[in-house]
Structures are given as structure tokens and as C-alpha cells.
Amino acid sequence: MKLLVTGGAGFIGSNFIRYMLSVHDDVEIVNVDTLTYAGNLENLIEVERDPSYTFVRGDITSEENVEGIFRQFSFDAVVNFAAESHVDRSIHMGVEAFVRTNILGVQYLLDASRAHGVGRFLQVSTDEVYGSLGDRGKFTEDSPIQPNNPYAASKAAADFMVRAARKTHGLDAVITRCSNNFGPFQFPEKLIPLMIANAREDKALPVYGDGCHVRDWIYVRDHCSAIDRVLRDAPTGSIYNIGGEHDVQNIEIVKTILKMLDKPESLIRFVEDRPGHDRRYAMDCSRLRSDLGWQPEHDFETAIAATVDWYVRHEAWLSNIRDGSYTGYYDDMYAKRLAEAEED
Ligand code: NAD
Ligand code: DAU
To answer: What is the DSSP string of 1-23?
Structure first.
């Protein structure tokens, strides 16, 4: 199978490429990534000499780039990871890049997939498209689409473009909606790697609001195995929720990390909440389990311990990013939130 993976230099994409090349002999992968702040070829050192792997620097928001890539290679399938992926950036930095990559870029990929007769298009979407849950219940694939932040809205829009490409033009397209991933190679702006990095340096750990927001957490390798299963076996037009079915409050995650690193809880700072912060996510993945026989292989406790250990052992990877990642708004936002928390 000749596979186009977009956004493969990011967190989940790079884990997916390693996963696919390690479990399948019949897969060739072309990774197209424009290398934004979140794209890092260091994530792929392990596979860069693999003859079944090719990297092409390309931007999915350039119709010309996309067309050129589809003309050069003949793909059996496309898995689209490429995205602006951080909710806080979509709130504080402006949404243009989110709209361009997460919506327009997806449309260009859909158009090229159709024009070049690609066998299957898999859109990697998110549970964020469902918005927030109340005190009870879980998201199913039939839950209403009610995104609450600009990132989530852009991903929801893409889901609708994928749906339209299938209904209108008969493209073989499927969508996966996954919960919060954790594991190696995650950019340290996201909760788990940020907390590990700060705790290691005895810096404050910013917890938004009261810290009681609930997320479902899945080990990234389990997300990868689920995508593989959906890519190969799901009926056309299907949508699958993917999750670890391990719901936990943010504050508990932070305390777990501190305990593993033997650091004091006094490092925790409750800071101003994220605007529009969804209160609770929880995933019902029974469709994926019953239709395709998938189940996660990693329990949360073992996987979070392995993850903390990975970041401790890969200090150079982390400091390369931390030293080079000053983006103005982002560091200033944390500094402001922490200063306000200190004043209270
Ligand atoms: P990431 O930010 O780590 O990586 C995104 C990658 O996309 C980067 O390598 C970046 O360079 C690339 N990219 C961005 N714009 C591009 C463009 N215009 N053209 C080509 N490449 C571009 O993100 P991630 O956390 O690995 O998420 C990957 C996908 O999974 C995203 O679509 C995200 O919405 C989805 N998702 C993420 C999670 C999660 O917990 N991280 C959960 C569910 C779904
Ligand atoms: O649910 C899936 C989504 O998970 C993906 O679609 C996104 O691409 C991915 O970034 C992630 O979004 P979140 O906003 O949930 O991830 P983040 O790690 O930024 O935040 C997780 C929770 O932790 C959230 O409730 C906000 C909170 N948080 C986050 C940061 C970075 C804090 O309390 N403090 C922080 O410093």
C-alpha cells in the first residue's frame, strides 16, 4: 500500500509512521509536512533511512504543492494529520492558519484524492468537535457537532467537507475522532509534556481554572493502531470515535506527574481559565470495538510512567525545542497568567 501521510513530522503523525513501518511489510509511506513550529524531523530519525519512507516538504494549503505531490506519486490512500493543533494558539494567536490548514488544506487534499483516484481518504479528527459534556454521558458518533473554540470549529468544518466529498462525489472517505493523546514526541505546549518539562526545571505548573476539567486520555500508539484498523477495514463513509476510555481531571494528571518526578505539589499554580474551556470529554468507542475488534493495548498507569520516563531520557530533544520555541504570545501568555496567579 502506498500511503500519503500529511503532518507526519508532528507528534501523532511521526508515531503513526513508525508504527506502520514496524508492523507492516507492505506499506510505503510518503510524508508531506511543511514543518511549522510543531513539525520536527528529529521525530523521524529512526525511519529516515528506511527505503519504504520518503519525506517531502510541502504545504497542504498550496494547491500547487498538493497537485505536484499527487502527480509525482500514485497513492492508494491518504491519512491526513496535518493541522494547526493547539487550542490555546487558536484563541490567542488568531485563527487564520487554523482556517487555512485545517479547512482549505483538507479541501485541496480531498480534491486531489478525487482527481487522482486515491482509494481511501482518512481524516484524523478530534473529540473536540462534539463540544462539552455535562455531568453524565459520553460522546458517541451520533452526538451533535457543537465545537466551542476556533481550533475545534475548524476541525468540525473539515469533517463536513469530508462528508460532502463522499456524498457529492463518491470519494471513499472515513473520519476518526480521537481524544487526548500522550506519549513520546509531543510538542511541549500540550498539558503532559509541558508539565513534565516545567517540573523537571522546578518551574511553576500552570493549571487552568479549578483544574477539574475532565479529558479522556489515550496512549498515542493505541491511536495509531486504531487508525490503521479503520484505514484497512472500515466501511466507506464511516466515522469512528477513538479513546482510551480513561477519563480524568487535569489536576490529577498534574499530581501524578509530580509524584513520578518526586517534585512537590507546591509547584502547581491555578491560573486564569482558558476562554470557552470545555468542561468534560468522555468517549464511547463501542462502535470501533464491535465493528472492527479494536481495543487499546496500553493501560494508563503503565503508559504515563513510560511517557514520563521517555521525556526524562530525551532531555536533549526537549531542550532543543524549548530553547528554540519562543513565540511571543505563548510564553508571554504563560508569564502573564502565572504573574496574576502569584498576585492572588
Ligand atoms: P502536531 O501539531 O504535533 O503536528 C501537526 C503537524 O502538521 C506538524 O508536523 C506540522 O508541521 C504539520 N502541518 C501543519 N500545517 C501544515 C500544512 N499547511 N501543510 C503540511 N503540514 C502541516 O499535531 P498532533 O498533535 O500530532 O495532531 C495531529 C492530528 O491529530 C491533527 O489533525 C489533530 O487535529 C489531530 N488530533 C490530535 C489529538 C491530540 O491529542 N494531539 C487528538 C485528536 C486528534
Ligand atoms: O481532545 C483532543 C484534543 O486534545 C486535540 O484535538 C488537540 O489537537 C490537542 O491539542 C488536545 O487539545 P487540548 O486542548 O485538550 O490539549 P492541551 O494539552 O492543550 O490541554 C489539555 C487540558 O489541560 C485542557 O483541559 C487544558 C488544560 N491545560 C493545558 C495546558 C497546556 C492546563 O490546565 N494547563 C496548561 O498549561
So the answer is: -EEEEESTTSHHHHHHHHHHHHH
Catalytic residues: 127-128, 151
| Band of residue 323 on the pLDDT scale cut at 50, 70, 90 | confident
Cβ–ligand 1 distance for 126 under 6 Å, the answer yes
Helix, strand, coil fractions of the chain, as percent rounded to 5: 50, 15, 35
Taking the C-alpha atoms of residue 45 and residue 38, their distance in angstroms, rounded to an integer, is: 16
DSSP string, 37-101: TT--GGGGGGGTT-TTEEEEE--TT-HHHHHHHHHHS--SEEEE--S---HHHHHHS-SHHHHII
The order of strands in the sheet holding 77-80 is 53-57, 28-33, 2-6, 77-80, 120-126, 173-178, 239-242
All structural domains of the chain: 2-182+218-242 (3.40.50.720), 191-214+247-276+299-335 (3.90.25.10)
Closest CA to 194 of 58, 60, 331, 57: 331
What is the Cβ-side half-sphere exposure of residue 167, based on CA atoms within 13 angstroms?
Answer: 6
Protein residue closest via CA to atom 30 of ligand 2: 191
How many other CB atoms are found less than 10 A from the CB of residue 235? 10
337 grid coordinates: 497568567
Residue 100 to residue 97: CA distance in whole angstroms: 5
Q: What is the pLDDT of residues 204-218, one digit of tens each?
A: 999 999 999 999 999
* Ligand 1 atom showing the smallest separation from residue 127 Cα: 43
Q: Please, what is the average pLDDT of the chain?
A: 95
Which ligand has the shortest distance to the CA of 57?
1
Asked whether 124 and 12 are in contact (CB, 8 A), the reply is yes
Full-prediction pTM beyond 0.90? yes
Q: Which of 88, 133, 180, 337 to mutate to test the pocket of ligand 2 (most atoms within 8 A of CB)?
A: 180
127: Cβ below 6 Å to ligand 2?
A: yes
Q: Is 71 exposed, middle or buried, given 0-12, 13-18 or 19+ CB atoms closer than 10 A? A: exposed
Pairing state of beta strands 53-57 and 180-182?
unpaired
